[in-house]
Specification:
Blueprint (H helix, E strand, L loop, with lengths): L5 H47 L1 H4 L4 H31 L6 E3 L1 H16 L1 H8 L4 H10 L2 E5 L8 E3 L1 H18 L4 E6 L4 E7 L6 H4 L23 H11 L3 E6 L5 E7 L4
Parallel strand pairs: 2-4
Antiparallel strand pairs: 1-3, 4-5, 5-7, 6-7
Length: 268
Amino acid sequence: MKKFGLKEDAPEKEKSTGDEGANEKTRLLDLFIHDLTGPLSIVSTSTANLLHKGDRYGPLTDQQKRIVERILRNVHKAQTLLHEMIEIFRSEEGLFQKELFFIEKVIKESLMDVLEISAPNIAETLCQAKDQEEFHRCLKDHGIFIEMTGEYCKSPFCHDQKKIQQILRNLVSNALKYRRERMVVSICGNLDLLISVEDDGRGIPQEGQAVIFDRFVRLKDKIRADVPGFGLGLTGVKSLIEAMRGEIILESREGFGTRFMVRIPPLQ
């Protein structure tokens, strides 16, 4: 056995340096997130004022209105991404807001969040629905289906609503991007909440499935090269679910669609 000496102590020194570097990166990221919140809020408010307060700022032409609406959609997208990063950091620190809420309401809000950015015309139609029946009929007309069975059809679920909504929002967004015609969100479970989000898209090749949850990984789509995204969504989803003591499973076959299945136990 080697005696303790300079060479034996070096790895410990390197580890300490690595930890300090990681902590510094975390502090810098915290500052980055904090400093972005204010400017984005100002841009969002100012852009909304241009759209909705024509009597004060002057009317917009149709072309100007379309451009300003596009700016506002992308600002909201940036704000959503920022808030999701904050929720991921909170979950990694074990910080959860315990509350009772109805899953159907969260599904509806998640869908509206996604559609307001990706398909604002559909979102506008849904906003005008008079009741739940008309809302679901409109969804079906656009190939979106919600299926609910089990305890949480009528009973509330206990957990952090923001984080459940973030998980659903990301899975729904992916499914809508890659589907051909249909997307199905299924909810069941009598104790643990079971979520399934399925699309009828081209599926994920076997080699892609091994890295799909890795950070900054974006699988190339040979048919649609313009699919937006940063490769952070599924990484964040997996991080959230694991912090919530749950699990996520991917089922996909190239040419036959994709399904993500999530299990989340209630917060005790």
